[in-house]
Design brief:
The structure is a homohexamer. By secondary structure, chain A is α+β, with helices and mostly antiparallel strands. Chain A contains five helices and five strands. Chains in contact: A-B, A-C, A-D, A-F, B-C, B-E, B-F, C-D, C-E, D-E, D-F, E-F. The interface between A and B is large, with 39 and 39 residues.
């Protein structure tokens, strides 16, 4: 584990992205599933937030952090569900992993809820969109990444 | 949660795949990092296995299962690291999510260990390769998926 | 911990009840909150199901059980939110605690989401409604309990 | 999750209450059970403290907090066991949920340990007694609540 | 992880031992501490049982098992506290690790509760006393181990 | 739980030691096992670090702490494997338990990986080597402890 004892506690933010690619028929079913057995997007959101808080249990060399904010949003697209996850903390190390874990578990939850409809779904484009704070400063994913996302 | 009380306990297996795309220089560093601070592939393997056992804590509507086997393998490729994860249990429901969680957390662990080298890495192609057992029988991902993987 | 090694694995079910008493104005707000920041009833449902699966971590002398079904329902009433939680497993011991933990954590989640509106809410009437299976057979809460609930 | 990033870290305290209502014969048994298989009040106390520390895992939109103190007390009464739980932390958000989770899991643990004696026990009067710190200042439950407790 | 899918589910038992060596004055304090702030032996017992149930989360290549019994006993000796922990399950693999984790965490809990009195305490003699069940049959620690224990 | 609310947050460090005593033949096997099924020393290291982060879940009266560094090292000796674990945090209370939990779970992991070779292994000499920070200042284990270690 990297020793972050000597690093000052500063405000850190990170945003991550993931995408669950599925057939249009499955997207339609997700939209309609909203009423009877629960809304997959809302359950994915809650699962992602809850998992982000447990990042240091899942990722062996991650530091525990007192997150001050986590948010996960899931949006229906034509060919799948796009997830954006953000995390914030004031601490000596960044929150990239927390944002990525949130986006990842939200996507897995959608897979779980839709797998009876389509087993071939694929989780893809899980990446860091941006992060700020800390010695390495601000990172923003380049246009190449954005273009790639456009193809999804 | 789907009620699986009346379903018979049968042997279930699932295999999942994920890929961490990175620059060739980063792949080279991962290879060399093996000695000083620990082997990223081995740490990812352990993280994936450990996480697979906790799938029902992470995915809200997943049933707890007594897994009889979990394996995660991480392999260096030219442009990234390919992960294969498998899970087995004897129970009333399948182990697809356990295999997918294993592949996902192994990939996130690699991201964590390499993020100082390249923040732009992308986790992609997380999908079910095959599963067997249960009423729905055997599923094998079609050639289209395989072709896609080839392009990675 | 009671030794249940010699007891046969049979099908067990339990249903639990809880009630979050709140002012009518708060009930009205919960109904309207559904859209902007998430549906408190749905989030409580997910939290209750997830917690029920972790009962043996929370209650020191509870046995771990492979639950085959958990369900939590939250319903808006005039003066609060009524929660019903059920759990099922095939095993050597009962699932009363799993149902009670589900009802309890769902109620606490509602408190958490509504506490900015009314700190004086009270969680009450957390009890076992019925259970079946096992050597002690079926238990159904008597009419006195039902009457009590009517007053809520 | 509410974003508390901009809120100053101040000292926060909360006290919660719960009550496990049981028959007098059961109260008597709890008193006598102290010697052979462990003291239910002590086990409940430990379970409540341990659970309070995991509040952010159980309640989806709760922030993780570095608690500096948790205490749970369980007291035998004529018709049940009264639990008082307190939590303290220095942070940007309150500890009401931590105190309530402590009181709730301590009560559930008592239910678990006594359920062979009386399945009809009821957990009731789980509420916030008081809290201090933070922008909303001090809250003390009004006399109506106290009166209600008197009736228990 | 060893693949135990093909192994039959049989009854498995294991007993483990640990010892917390401390000065006589500390042993005396533990005896007297029983009243004011809680009984260290009882808290250690509960901590050990609870941890044994989470063995597969702590030990990376351990299989999850539905334990049917766990017991931990802590006994004051002249020069320390002796802990015996037992675990039982019906499953395809043994419960040695569960018994050892129980004995280990109980010992650590005693260290935690007594460290203000004596930081130099040492946890020692953590070993498997016996195990039964499974293809490898019964194991009983030899007299050499017993003799060693006698010296403690 | 000791109330540490009023104590200032200072930098705290602790180092712990443990030893897994095994036969020379087993030590030799551990050395050779490195290639096929994973390196036991590396897996023990990861297990120890991960467990240290969860100390407050395992030890009932331990405060949760935001660790800024954890390290675990395992070294092959003639008659066993020696483990050194260190933990650091800035907080109102010490990190002795975190270091001890790391050393303990690393040792248990080695036991788990080698138990098919030798069930009679013994975990011993788990103690605090030193700690610094806090009101009680620096503690260094005396030469007697060191001598003892020499005998291992």
């Amino acid at each position: 584990m990297v020793d972050v004892t000597a690093k000052p506690a500063t405000s850190r933010t990170a945003v991550a992205h993931s995408f669950v690619r599925m057939q249009r028929a499955t997207v339609g079913s997700v939209r309609r599933l909203k009423s009877p057995k629960g809304d997959p997007l809302e359950i994915a959101r809650i699962a992602g937030i809850t998992a982000a808080k447990r990042t240091s249990e899942l990722i062996p060399l991650c530091h525990p952090l007192a997150l001050t904010h986590v948010d996960v949003r899931a949006k229906l697209c034509q060919n799948g569900i796009e997830i954006t996850s953000s995390a914030t903390a004031t601490g000596p190390t960044g929150v990239e992993m927390e944002a990525l874990v949130g986006a990842s578990v939200a996507a897995l939850t959608i897979y779980d809820m839709c797998k009876a409809l389509e087993r071939g779904m694929e989780i893809t484009e899980l990446y860091l969109v941006k992060k700020s704070g800390g010695r390495s400063g601000t990172y923003v994913r380049s246009a190449a990444g954005a273009r790639k996302r456009g193809k999804a």
